[in-house]
Design a protein that fits this description.
Helix content is 41%, strand content 26%. It is of the alpha+beta class. It has a four-stranded mixed β-sheet with strand order 1-8-5-6, covered by helices on one side.
């Protein structure tokens, strides 16, 4: 994970600014690790990657609580007598998507920062802090308002999209749940989250049941990884492929009760539920 900072000072301030920001960022890194109950892994040397741009790296992945992040950065910048005009963005290392962001223009006010209660799970993140020039404060005030408005519009779009997708998924689930589905010699009951083979009952988790319901709607057809992740994990924020692979692996073991029903990996694309001699396919 890395933290990047940009700022502009007078020539005299330039001489010691780099050292001040390095001290502040190392303190930020140490406190973030302690919040993860990690007192042994290293805060790697701070890198000045260009003029007034610094990078803070960690030896291990970590979880980030936005409320802790905001408070720690605020405290350490104040201790170092650094400006309180900046934008912070938490970026996922792999997807390069912004997982969390906020803007500060002056002292932090109560309820000024949104989404503080949504913790980011343990992973690799880049945290970019853009320190604004004093002479461009008013310009960035206007830009900040536009930025905040854009975030609100995006949030509204995401909420509406999520609601529509949830409704569509519930409708699909209600159709599937009205009947048991025959998969080879297995009987799948989506509403009861279980498989039955003869007198044997096999329990499924909610995620396993949702995944199998998607496959059951498209037997012997390729289902893309992106579609599975979107339909099953769409409301859970950032999702890594390992979560999907883990559930697919567990589902394979449970489907193994019937040798003619199996989930096949289609390299680089997704998966296919193969069913041989399925009376209901």
């Amino acid at each position: 994970m890395s933290i990047m900072t940009i700022h502009s000072f007078s020539p005299k301030e330039d001489l010691f600014y780099a050292e001040k920001i390095k001290v502040a960022l190392r303190a930020v890194g140490n406190k973030l690790l302690l919040k993860n109950n990690d007192s042994t892994s290293l805060v790697l040397p701070i890198k000045e990657i260009s003029d007034y741009k610094f990078e803070l790296s960690f030896q291990q992945e970590l979880a980030i609580d936005p409320e802790d992040l905001v408070a720690i950065i605020d405290v350490e910048l104040k201790k170092a007598s650094l400006p309180d005009n900046y934008i912070t963005e938490v970026i996922h290392c792999n997807t390069k998507e912004v997982s969390y962001s906020y803007e500060i223009l002056g002292p932090i006010k109560e309820n000024e920062i949104s989404c503080l209660g949504r913790k980011l799970p343990t992973n690799c993140y880049t945290i970019q802090i853009i320190m604004l020039k004093e002479e461009t404060h008013s310009l960035y005030n206007t830009m900040g308002n536009m930025y905040t408005f854009s975030l609100l519009v995006l949030l509204i779009i995401l909420i509406i999209s999520s609601t529509l997708l949830q409704k569509k998924r519930r409708e699909k689930k209600s159709i599937v749940s009205s009947n048991q589905i025959v998969l080879g010699t297995l009987i799948f009951s989506p509403d009861q989250q279980r498989l039955n083979k003869d007198q044997t009952e096999i329990s499924l988790t909610a995620k396993e049941s949702e995944l199998l319901a998607i496959f059951a709607q498209r037997p012997n057809q390729i289902v893309k990884r992106e579609q599975l992740i979107k339909q099953v994990w769409e409301d859970n924020g950032v999702v890594v492929g390992r979560s999907l692979d883990m559930f697919i692996s567990k589902l394979r073991k449970k489907l193994g009760k019937d040798s003619e029903v199996k989930i096949v990996n289609v390299h680089g694309v997704g998966y296919r539920l193969e069913i041989i001699n399925n009376g209901n396919s």
